[in-house]
Design goal:
Length: about 280
C-alpha cells in the first residue's frame, strides 16, 4: 500500500506527518496523521497510541489542539490519528448536511445499510487496515493503546472491548457511552445499521462491557460543565455497567470543564501516562 506524504513538521524533536492513502475498507482515499517522537529515529520499535476524534473532526484537531506532542516525545510514544469518516467524491453524506451524521461522523462501526455500507466501515479501518499500514511503515511495536473523545471515546471503548489482546490500554474523554440510548447514537445507528435495535448492541460500550473477556482498566475524564453530558454522553451509564460487570473503570468528573479541546488539553498528560505505563510494561 502506497503512502503519499501530505505534510511534515518537526515538533519537540520528533515529526508530525500527514499521509494520504487508498483505503480498501472505506473505498476512498484517506488522510491520517502520525506523531513520531525523537526515539523513532534511533531504530527501536515504539508503542503506539491510536486517537479517535469526535464529530466534525479530521486527523488535525487532536494533533493541533490537545497539546499531546511534548509528553509523547518525552515518553517515546507514537500517536496515530485517523479521520472520523470516509471522505471524498462518491461518499454519501447526511442529506441535510447535518454535522452529527455522515461526513465527520462515521461512529467507528461497519454500516450494513444502503447507501452507507459501501464506504462507512470505520471499525474495520481503525482496528485492522490502519494498524497494518502503520506497522508496515513505521517503527511501531505491537504494543497498542487506544483513546478518543466523544464519538471517538465511544470508538476507543468499543474497539478495546471487542478485541481482547489487541490493545494493552484504553481511555476516553467525554465518551458517548451508551449510543443505543442517546439521540446522536439513535440517529446514526438507525441509518448505518437499520431499525432493528438488536443489531446495534454489538456497537455499544455499556452492552459490550457486560461480556468483555478481558478487563483492561479504563480511564475516563468527563467535564461537569459539558453541555452534552446528560443528553448524549451519560457517564453514569458506563459507571453502572462497569460496576455490574466488575470491570475496572476510573471515571473522573472534572469540575468546571466543558466538551472542548481546552478540557482535553488539561488532562491529556494523565492519559498519555496511563497508556505509556501499560504499553511499556
Ligand atoms: N459543530 C458542532 C459542535 C461539534 C463538536 O463539539 N464536536 C466535538 C466533538 S463532539 C462529539 O463527538 C469536537 O471535537 N469538535 C472539534 C474541535 O476542534 O473542537 C456545533 O456547532 O455545535
Amino acid at each position: 500500500m502506497t503512502l503519499e506524504i501530505v505534510s511534515s513538521n518537526k515538533s519537540f524533536g520528533g515529526w508530525h506527518k500527514r499521509y494520504r492513502h487508498r483505503s480498501s475498507s472505506l473505498n476512498c482515499d484517506m488522510i491520517f496523521a502520525v506523531y513520531l517522537p525523537p526515539q523513532a529515529e534511533q531504530g527501536e520499535k515504539l508503542p503506539v497510541l491510536y486517537w479517535l476524534s469526535g464529530l466534525t473532526c479530521t486527523d488535525e484537531n487532536f494533533m493541533q489542539k490537545a497539546g499531546a506532542l511534548r509528553l509523547a516525545a518525552e515518553l517515546g510514544l507514537i500517536i496515530v490519528a485517523p479521520d472520523t469518516s470516509p471522505r471524498g467524491a462518491g461518499v454519501p453524506d447526511d442529506p441535510d448536511g447535518a454535522w452529527d451524521f455522515g461526513l465527520g461522523a462515521g461512529f467507528y462501526l461497519n454500516a450494513t445499510q444502503q447507501p452507507w455500507a459501501q464506504h462507512y466501515r470505520m471499525y474495520d479501518y481503525v482496528v485492522e487496515e490502519l494498524p497494518a499500514l502503520v506497522e508496515a511503515n513505521f517503527p511501531v511495536s505491537d504494543s497498542r493503546g487506544i483513546s478518543g473523545h466523544s464519538m471517538g471515546g465511544h470508538g476507543a471503548l468499543i474497539c478495546a472491548l471487542k478485541n481482547p489482546g489487541r490493545y494493552r490500554s484504553v481511555s476516553a474523554f467525554a465518551p458517548i457511552t451508551n449510543p443505543l440510548n442517546c439521540p446522536w447514537g439513535e440517529k446514526a445507528f438507525s441509518r448505518y445499521l437499520g431499525e432493528d435495535r438488536s443489531r446495534w448492541r454489538e456497537w455499544d460500550a455499556c452492552v459490550l462491557i457486560a461480556d468483555a473477556d478481558e478487563k483492561l482498566p479504563i480511564l475516563v475524564d468527563q467535564g461537569d460543565r459539558d453541555d452534552f453530558m446528560e443528553g448524549q454522553l451519560k457517564p453514569q451509564a458506563l459507571q453502572a455497567a462497569a460496576a455490574t460487570a466488575g470491570h475496572p473503570l476510573t471515571l473522573r468528573i472534572q469540575p468546571g470543564y466543558d466538551h472542548s479541546y481546552y478540557f482535553i488539553a488539561s488532562f491529556i498528560d494523565d492519559h498519555l501516562r496511563h497508556h505509556a505505563q501499560a504499553l511499556k510494561a
